[in-house]
TrEMBL record:
Domain Zn(2)-C6 fungal-type, chain residue ranges per copy: 12-41
A molecular function (GO) term: DNA-binding transcription factor activity, RNA polymerase II-specific
Region (Disordered): 44-66
InterPro entries in UniProt: Zn2-C6_fun-type_DNA-bd_sf (IPR036864), Zn2Cys6_DnaBD (IPR001138)
PROSITE patterns from the UniProt entry: ZN2_CY6_FUNGAL_1 (PS00463), ZN2_CY6_FUNGAL_2 (PS50048)
Protein's name according to its UniProt entry: Zn(2)-C6 fungal-type domain-containing protein
Comp. bias intervals (Basic residues): 44-54
Taxonomy, superkingdom: Eukaryota
Pfam families found in the cross-reference section: Zn_clus (PF00172)
Source organism per UniProt: Gigaspora rosea
SUPFAM superfamilies named among the record's database cross-references: Zn2/Cys6 DNA-binding domain
Length: 66
C-alpha cells in the first residue's frame, strides 16, 4: 500500500524553505516545534514573470551610476 500524499502547502516557513524540507503550513509548523526553532512566514521577495521594460531600464541606470 502507498502512503497518502500530503496536501500541497502554498507557503513554507523560512526554516523549511532554507533546508528544502516539507512544511506542515500551520502557524507554527511541526518541524520548527520539534527542533525548537522560531517559525516565521516571510514573503520570498521573488517575483515571477518577465521584468517590465521600466524596471530593467531603472536598474540599468542604477548600475551605470555606481
Amino acid at each position: 500500500m502507498r502512503k497518502r500524499k500530503q496536501p500541497y502547502i502554498g507557503l513554507a516557513c523560512t526554516n523549511c524553505r532554507k533546508s528544502h524540507a516539507r512544511c506542515s503550513g500551520n502557524p507554527i509548523c511541526e518541524r520548527c516545534v520539534n527542533r525548537n526553532l522560531i517559525c516565521e512566514y516571510k514573503k520570498s521577495g521573488r517575483k515571477r514573470g518577465p521584468k517590465s521594460k521600466k524596471q530593467s531600464f531603472e536598474t540599468m541606470i542604477d548600475l551605470k551610476d555606481s
